[in-house]
Amino acid sequence: MKQTTEKQIEAILNGVLINACGLKLGSHRTRTHDDHEGTFEGKVGVYIGPDGDAYLTSDQQPPLRFRNYFGGGRSPRVYNALLILAKAIDMDNAERPEQAPNNLTNTQ
Questions:
Q1: Does residue 23 fall inside a structural domain?
Q2: Is residue 28 part of a domain?
Q3: How many domains does the chain have?
Q4: Residue 104 domain-assigned?
């Protein structure tokens, strides 16, 4: 696996835009953690609000909101990292769909 430099990571986190990731407003995606022991509990997710804010979601706690630049966001790199996480969840869900008995579908 090719190693990414700190400078490359900084460039990515400073430059991601919601449209660059192909994420739709009002979309939510989730992924179950690896050690669920067949319960399919313990999901992490990212919800992109209708205003473009990004929410880190979990079935263990209320969502955490990170506002976009126009909404007064104070954590632009965290916001961009959530967009990257959302895209990664989409890619993993497409490549390796979860086999949960009552798998709630993601709204992408």
A1: yes
A2: yes
A3: 1
A4: no
- pTM of the model as a whole: 0.79
Q: What is the pLDDT of residue 103?
A: 47
Over the range 3-17, which residues count as b (16 or more CB within 10 Å of their CB) and which as e?
Answer: eeeeeeeeeebeebe
What does the pLDDT look like over 78-93, one tens digit per residue?
999 999 999 999 999 9
Q: Report angle CA 81, 85, 86 to the nearest 5 degrees.
A: 115
On whether residue 30 sits in a domain, the answer given is yes
The DSSP secondary structure of the chain, one letter per residue, reads -PPPPHHHHHHHHHH--GGGGTPPTTEEEEEE-TT-TTS---EEEEEE-TTS-EEEEETTEEEEEE--GGGT-S-HHHHHHHHHHHHHHHHHHHHS----TT-PPPB-
Side chain identity at 84, as an amino acid letter? I
Which structural domain range is residue 58 located in? 6-95
